[in-house]
Design goal:
Helix 4 packs parallel to helix 21 and helix 10 packs antiparallel against helix 13. The longest helix is centred in the N-terminal third of the chain and has 19 residues. The protein has 775 residues and is an alpha/beta fold. Strands 5-4-19-18-17-6 form a six-stranded mixed sheet. The chain binds ligand MGD (2 copies) and molybdenum atom (MO). Molybdenum atom (MO) binds next to loops. One ligand MGD binds next to helix 8 and helix 15.
Length: 775
């Protein structure tokens, strides 16, 4: 491999720093003598992410996995269901031995139960870098070595919308990523009605890399032109100060009622664009019959919505009138659909925009998830990027990714998904690389019971996450900082020659090298590696993009020139407004990929599924999870500002945002007062699923009735008085594990009901970052 050469290169070029890229930004890094990293944001980035600060002390942190390790119980008793997972000690073993064991176990399970008993869905964000992408590597390996694996579809990000939007409008990518741009907003938009806000902490992130954070500046430009931003959200902080946003805070999960009432106003006051509904939509009559109450006897008036949302009728009416007055953009954040009946606000937001008649117009209409990530509001580069082929998966079974615990707990059980009835496969072995299910999944006590059922759990990561601590076999991977790679994303106009900034920590190996070691043992290295080392692959993958640049008549430096330059700029793509602009201009020549070719405000297809939890048009549906006397508060567990998910939670930026080493839970002064909670005190958050501790922040930027605890504190459970409590502040200790609906089966992690109280019980130190290794 190329390890030695790259490490010495890093030392030679020490002073200048070397180019690298992460999901939260492009930077130059330089290894310091004390093992820390000097990290400098790219000079062209107007608003670099503070999350870069997590890299400085990450390379040699004690939470890194130093050597391969096997859980003691698995070593002694062999594979099989075991509820000691998560509590057991680990024994370090040499690489040769652990690779023999993993290869042997994969062969045993394949021969006894077939590849359909291996789960390789391995959801997760891993790191930037097109070659060392952990999921691609894992999938390619399982396809080659086993002939396939049970995969997962969709995402925790957009579980409901990914499967809903194609029925209504077109692909989720087209509707979110190639639609209204920030430049259009800066120039054209009068009113931005942002359900779920547009926090710049969120657009800090783009999978694969982001070289310029433009959102704050664009919002400032729009606001100074007089554009009006409306932050519909439980948190005032869901917009940056530069946007000068108004704040409207409906009860969490009730946006659909507010949107329906706005439609009622547009219809009743004849402000709806009936020509657009006629020429570009189907089903407006069915939806309007529901809005007027002709269908169910309840008119969806602002007064009706006021009782559900807590927003007074005059405010709702005023917003609807104002929206009809100028160029209005409706956005719905991912968060709204990461909740019970999450399909509804996505559809209702689209219907509201359809009634305003501006879909496809510059800076207007509907852009699902604009502002939720840094991929949105830009124009896709439209070039083939370096991509590792995953090969062919011979197993047809799959699950929607958020149904992982259901699958493991109930093999063979049937479930509904997007019009199909399916059965959960019987999984014996789970292999995870590049994700952290004990970060991303809901109801972690239940997830622990689910993982106790498998015969073998293998986790490959660079740090001792809670998922690694539940694994039977733990394989130490390198961080991207320790590898050569190519950084690229479909919405960024830079390709980065990512350089290794350090030699690997202890005995960590690249995911690719780990899989090669297994492939050699299983007799499929020639097929898996195609005879290439890392350097060979990088050159091979880069060539796709270089050839496309050359074919397009653009500057197309060869690989060596690219690496010497550190990065190349791609041609600026033209802002053509995407498929919605073309559709607006001529709906006959450019129909949408829906059954009618138009926007479906009523969908015969969805209606035909017969799902009460996702009917044929957007609707206000009663929920199972609602506040009660025992659990009266809404917990909003959103994305953390100080890190990406759980990644580098031990890093400097993430640690600086904690109090007493705990994650911070914010609540309204009134709710704090009622519970005798003062700022900075520890509190316990509990639900029927479990409990966690957190440090209180009393904050009037949080709506009354709401507690905000971001995700990502490493799960650190202990038993106190027979109750499992995460002492660190992971909200998934209390969230609810249920699908959005039978249509999307997405995660509902964003919202659940809880009670909070001051915690006067024992206060232990956090142990989440101490490796559970005994020798
Ligand atoms: N309650 C609640 N839960 C949520 C959400 C919510 O809103 N509320 N949001 C959800 C959303 S949108 C998402 S996307 C998920 C995110 O869930 P995940 O994507 O699973 O979270 P990450 O922390 O990014 O996990 C990535 C893991 O990959 C590891 N890793 C990084 N690089 C490499 C590598 O090169 N090789 C290997 N082998 N490992 C590597 C990291 O150390 C980390 O452990 O969480 C979801 N969970
Ligand atoms: N810094 C940082 N940025 C990230 C990530 C990260 O981990 N860290 N993760 C990235 C990923 S993978 C994804 S998918 C996106 C997720 O993008 P989103 O899902 O949009 O992000 P969240 O921060 O979870 O939620 C945004 C806001 O929605 C509001 N909200 C919650 N419930 C409701 C509701 O019922 N109604 C209304 N109107 N508002 C509500 C909350 O106040 C929350 O702050 O973020 C990306 N950006
Ligand atoms: Mo996500």
């Amino acid at each position: 491999m190329t390890k030695k050469g790259t490490a010495s290169m890093a030392r030679d070029e020490k002073d200048a720093g070397l180019p690298h890229s992460s999901h939260w930004g492009r930077f130059d890094g330089r290894l310091l003598d004390d093992g820390r990293l000097d990290v400098r944001a790219h000079p062209d980035d107007p608003d670099p992410s503070p999350i870069l600060g997590n890299f400085t002390d990450a390379l040699r942190h004690r939470a890194r996995i130093a050597r391969p390790a096997v859980r003691r119980g698995w070593l002694e008793d062999g594979p099989g269901p075991d509820d000691r997972r998560g509590r057991d000690a680990y024994v370090e073993v040499p690489w040769d031995e652990v690779l023999d064991r993993v290869a042997g176990e994969l062969e045993r399970v394949r021969d006894a139960h077939g590849p359909q008993s291996v789960f390789g869905g391995s959801y997760g964000w891993a790191s930037a870098g097109r070659f060392h992408h952990a999921q691609s590597q894992l999938h390619r390996f399982l396809n080659t070595a086993l002939g396939g694996y049970v995969r997962s579809v969709g995402s925790y990000s957009a579980g409901a919308s990914t499967f809903l939007l194609p029925h209504l409008m077109g692909s989720y990518e087209a509707i979110s990523r190639h639609n209204v741009t920030w430049e259009q907003i800066a120039q054209h938009t009068d009113m931005i009605l942002a359900f779920g806000g547009m926090a710049v902490k969120n657009s800090n992130i783009a999978a694969g890399g982001i070289s310029k954070h433009i959102e704050r500046g664009m919002m400032a430009r729009a606001a100074s032109r007089g554009a009006r931003f409306v932050n519909v959200s439980p948190l005032r902080g869901d917009f940056p100060a530069e946007a000068r946003a108004e704040w409207i805070a409906p009860t969490p999960g009730t946006d659909t009622a507010m949107m329906l009432a706005m439609m009622h106003v547009l219809d009743a006051e004849d402000l709806a664009d009936r020509a657009f509904l006629e020429s570009h939509c189907v089903g407006a009559d069915r939806l309007l019959a529901y809005v007027r109450g002709e269908a169910d006897g309840t008119a969806k008036t602002p007064d009706w919505a006021a009782t559900i949302t807590g927003i007074d009728a005059a405010t709702i009416t005023g917003l609807a009138r104002d929206a009809a007055r100028g160029r209005t953009l409706v956005t719905v954040a991912h968060s709204l659909q990461r909740a019970e009946h999450g399909e509804q606000p996505v559809w209702a937001g689209l219907a509201l925009a359809a009634m305003l008649g501006q879909i496809g117009a510059p800076g207007g209409g509907y852009n699902y998830a604009l502002g939720s990530l840094g991929h949105t509001g830009r124009v896709p580069v439209g070039l083939p990027l370096p991509t590792l082929s995953q090969g062919r998966n011979g197993v047809s079974a799959f699950i929607p990714c958020a149904r992982i615990a259901d699958m493991l707990l109930d093999p063979g059980a049937s479930f509904d998904f997007n019009g199909a009835t399916m059965a959960y496969p019987d999984i014996r072995l789970v292999y995870w690389a590049g994700g952290n299910p004990f970060h991303h999944h809901q109801d972690l006590s239940r997830l622990a019971r689910a993982f106790a059922r498998v015969e073998t759990l293998i986790v490959q990561d660079f740090a001792w996450t809670a998922s690694a601590r539940h694994a039977d076999i733990v394989l130490p991977a390198t961080m991207s900082l320790e590898r050569e790679d190519i950084g690229a994303a479909s919405t960024d106009t830079r390709i980065v020659a990512m350089r290794a900034l350090s030699t690997p920590f202890a005995e960590a190996r690249d995911d690719y090298r780990i899989f090669r070691g297994l492939a050699e043992r299983m007799g499929c290295d020639a097929e898996f590696s195609e005879g290439r080392d890392t350097e060979g692959w990088l050159r091979h993958l880069y060539e796709t993009t270089r050839a496309a640049l050359e074919a397009g008549g653009h500057a197309a430096p060869d690989f060596d020139a690219f690496r010497a330059a550190g990065e190349i700029a791609l041609p600026n793509p033209v802002d053509d407004g995407g498929l919605l602009r073309a559709f607006r201009t001529d709906p006959v020549a450019h129909p949408l990929a829906t059954p009618s070719g138009r926007i479906e405000l009523f969908s015969e297809t969805i209606d035909g599924f017969g799902y009460p939890d996702c009917p044929g048009h957007p609707a206000w549906l009663e929920r199972e999870e609602v506040p009660s006397a025992e659990y009266p508060l809404w917990l909003v567990s959103n994305q953390p500002a100080s890190r990406l998910h759980s990644q580098l939670d031990y890093g400097a930026a993430s640690q600086a945002a904690k109090r007493q080493g705990r994650e911070v839970a914010s609540l309204n002064p009134a709710d704090a007062r009622n519970r005798n909670i003062s700022d900075g005190e520890l509190l316990r958050i509990r639900s029927p699923r479990g409990a966690c501790l957190a440090a209180a922040k009393v904050d009037d930027a949080v709506a009354a009735g709401v507690v905000n605890l971001p995700t990502g504190a490493w799960y650190d459970p202990i038993e106190i008085d027979g109750q499992r409590i995460c002492r660190h502040g992971n909200p998934n200790a209390v969230t609810r594990d249920a699908g959005t609906s039978r249509l999307g089966q997405g995660s509902t992690g964003q919202l659940c009901c809880v009670e909070v109280e001051r915690w006067d019980g024992p206060i232990d130190d956090i142990r989440a970052f101490d490796p559970p290794v005994t020798g």
